Amino acid sequence: MAEERLATRTQFPTSVESQKPRLKKAPEFAILEKQNWLIHLHYIRKDYEACKAIIKEQLQETQGLCEYAIYVQALIFRLEGHIQESLELFQTCAVLSPQCADNLKQVARSLFLLGKHKAAIEVYNEAAKLNQKDWEICHNLGVCYIYLKQFNKAQDQLHNALQLNRHDLTYIMLGKIHLLEGDLDKAIEIYKKAVEFSPENTELLTTLGLLYLQLGIYQKAFEHLGNALTYDPTNYKAILAAGSMMQTHGDFDVALTKYRVVACAMPESPPLWNNIGMCFFGKKKYVAAISCLKRANYLAPFDWKILYNLGLVHLTMQQYASAFHFLSAAINFQPKMGELYMLLAVALTNLEDVENAKRAYAEAVRLDKCNPLVNLNYAVLLYNQGDKRGALAQYQEMEKKGNLFKHSSSLELDSEMVEMAQKLGAALQVGEALVWTKPVKDPKSKHRTTSASKPASFQQPLGSNQALGQAMSSAAAYRKLPAGAGGTPQLTKPPSLPLEPEPTVAASPADATFSTEASEQIREK
After folding, report:
1. Are 202 and 228 in contact (CB under 8 A)?
2. How far apart are alpha carbons 298 and 276 in whole angstroms?
3. Given this model, what pLDDT does residue 19 score?
4. Some GO term, biological process aspect, for this entry: which one (predicted)?
5. In order of start, what are the domains of the chain with their CATH numbers?
6. For residue 462, which phi and psi values (nearest 5 degrees)?
7. What is the longest distance spanned by two Cα atoms in the chain?
8. Within 13 Å and on the Cβ side, how many CA atoms surround 5?
């Protein structure tokens, strides 16, 4: 009884609230961004297949409204080379978020990669309205204007980019504009400012050194190239440029040592094999020279400098038909160079085609206004054919060019050329003393190629050392500008955006050797 009474005392009254019915739970809506972190994780790990699978699942759940999933899918399409598909997806992102400047920038980037530069400029201008302080937009507008050849607008945009934020790539593109316009002084000033801003950038140091090398300022060129090699001892562009300088000054063995290092990094480089070939030519190892030049020609069949050097080497080896073949090909690519016509005339003279040789000499004289060797060889040909009046006219023109050369350059004319000019002057009875140079006697006998109809008094200076000197400078100056190692006025295309580096070419260790004939020539020494 006592227990029952206790139980009745401990009972509490039921609350009124507990008797009310419970409300139903609110329905769960799909969160559009719930898997964005996982998509981002797989993308930065470059696990693109897993990333695409998650994107597909996310887009199915959100009925295609997840902006970030579409954005990453477009980036993957671009990396896979599907530019048009990436453009369509980026346009979808721009529709989903019209106030986002990044989406418009990506749309413009895809248009740029498709070659639609004008359309890209319009989209970049729309993006600039949303974000006026984005240096990347100004930079990319400048790059688009470069492709449209509107260099003034390009310079304005690149300067605006530098005012907003200074970047190495913007300086590089601004310097390339001045190089395309042929203004080396302004290009050097831009690269100087770039080196002051980023003194450890090896590309900037190498480019500046190459520009000084092109202007003949060897001390500053060597200084900047040395700084580039200090920060990056394997920089093949700087190594090739340094070897080119040594080759210009006749240090062929040291230059070849440098080129061996470059061959390990860039075994398929046309300027490398061109310079190696001309090093062997300077050492009078002509078979090795032809072997290396043929390899360079195989890698770059449309490079006129390689064809020029091949023609010169064949002329030296008295293989006139082969020389005619390569020189004719070089003229097709460089029809405004008088020296090519002169060498072609030398080959035609030895092939006993005098009429075409005269035409080639006449074209060389018309194009070349400063090289006295052209007029000298033409005068020799005319004298051998009995045209003393024409020979005298060319001889007088040669003297005028010699005087200009003496006053405008500190270099001396080739001694063999001076000796031949004296003999020709004596034969034409105009005196042996030339007022524009002092002849230097060479104790060593020099190899000369004679004409089929030469007189007994003197020999025709075919394949002279002056022509050799021109070819060596051509080889050493090959690819002087930033694009390749050692650089030419041919410039590579500028990148469209500053945030993605250009892919590097993987070097094959199997090709990092010299040719068989070249190595045989080295062993012979």
Report:
1. yes
2. 15
3. 52
4. microtubule cytoskeleton organization
5. 36-132 (1.25.40.10)
6. -90, 140
7. 159
8. 2
pLDDT of 495 = 35
Q: Is 241 exposed, middle or buried (0-12, 13-18, 19+ CB in 10 A)?
A: buried
Residues 126, 120 contacting (CB under 8 angstroms): no
pLDDT score at 425: 81
Measure the CA–CA gap between 340 and 308, rounded to whole angstroms: 7
Q: Which H, E and C letters describe 110-122, residue by residue?
A: HHHHCCCHHHHHH
CA separation, residue 30 to residues 34, 62, 293 (Å): 8, 7, 67
Q: For 17, which DSSP code?
A: G
Measured distance CA(388)–CA(394) in Å, rounded: 10
Instruction: Give me the helix-helix angle, 320-333 and 304-316, nearest 10°.
Output: 160
Q: How many CA atoms lie within 13 A of 462 on its CB side?
A: 28
Give residue 429's region: left, alpha or beta (phi > 0; psi -120 to 50): left
Rounded average pLDDT over 70-84: 91
pLDDT at 31: 63
Q: Give the model's confidence band at 496: pLDDT under 50 very low, under 70 low, under 90 confident, else very high.
A: very low
Is the sign of the CA dihedral 45, 49, 51, 52 positive or negative? positive
487 vs 210: CA distance, rounded Å: 7
| Structure tokens belonging to residue 36 | 């964005």
Query: Nearest to residue 420, comparing CAs of 458, 369, 384, 469?
Result: 458
Q: In this structure, what DSSP letter does residue 272 have?
A: H
Q: How far is CA 385 from the centre of its chain?
A: 46
